[in-house]
Amino acid sequence: MRLSNQQIEQIRHLAHQVAGDEARVRVFGSRLDDTQRGGDLDLLLELFEPVAAPALLAARFSALVSRQMQGRKVDVLLSAPNLLRLPIHDVAFQEGQLL
């Protein structure tokens, strides 16, 4: 995985800051391939309670992580009991690595 231990800790901290201590984060996509370079950061933010404003939560988390990653593009996918589960969620859960 192309993230440092410090970056992983920062991402986990930000997830807990915006979504609570129970939130979990998975990284998926090209960042898992150590042979690649560059690229955006794909994150799945897993929540166990319904989310009132999912778009706002995803945008806030993405912006905070992007700042920590020196402006790198960060895509955030949310998983919560009240949100529709799409095929991309299956990919993120199957291939993603829990931080």
Summarize the amount of helix as a percent range.
25-40%
Q: How many DSSP-defined strands?
A: 4
Order of helices and strands: HEEHEHE
CA-based gyration radius: 13 Å
Please count the helical segments.
3
CATH architecture: 2-Layer Sandwich
How would you characterize this protein structure?
The chain has 99 residues and is α+β, with helices and mostly antiparallel strands. It has one domain (5-98): Beta Polymerase, domain 2. Helices cover 39% and strands 19% of the residues. The chain has helices at residues 5-19, 54-68, 87-95; strands at residues 24-28, 41-46, 74-79, 97-98. Helix 2 (54-68) links the parallel strand 2 (41-46) and strand 3 (74-79). Helix 1 (5-19) packs antiparallel against helix 2 (54-68). The chain is globular, with a radius of gyration of 13 Å. The termini are close together.
Structure, briefly:
This protein is of the alpha+beta class and 99 residues long. It has helices at 5-19, 54-68, 87-95; strands at residues 24-28, 41-46, 74-79, 97-98. The protein has one domain (5-98): Beta Polymerase, domain 2 (2-Layer Sandwich), CATH 3.30.460.
How does the SSE layout of this entry go?
Elements: H1 5-19, E1 24-28, E2 41-46, H2 54-68, E3 74-79, H3 87-95, E4 97-98
Parallel strand pairs: 2-3
Antiparallel strand pairs: 1-2, 1-4
Helix pairs in contact: 1-2
Give short descriptive properties of this protein.
Beta Polymerase, domain 2, alpha+beta, 4-stranded mixed beta sheet, 99 residues
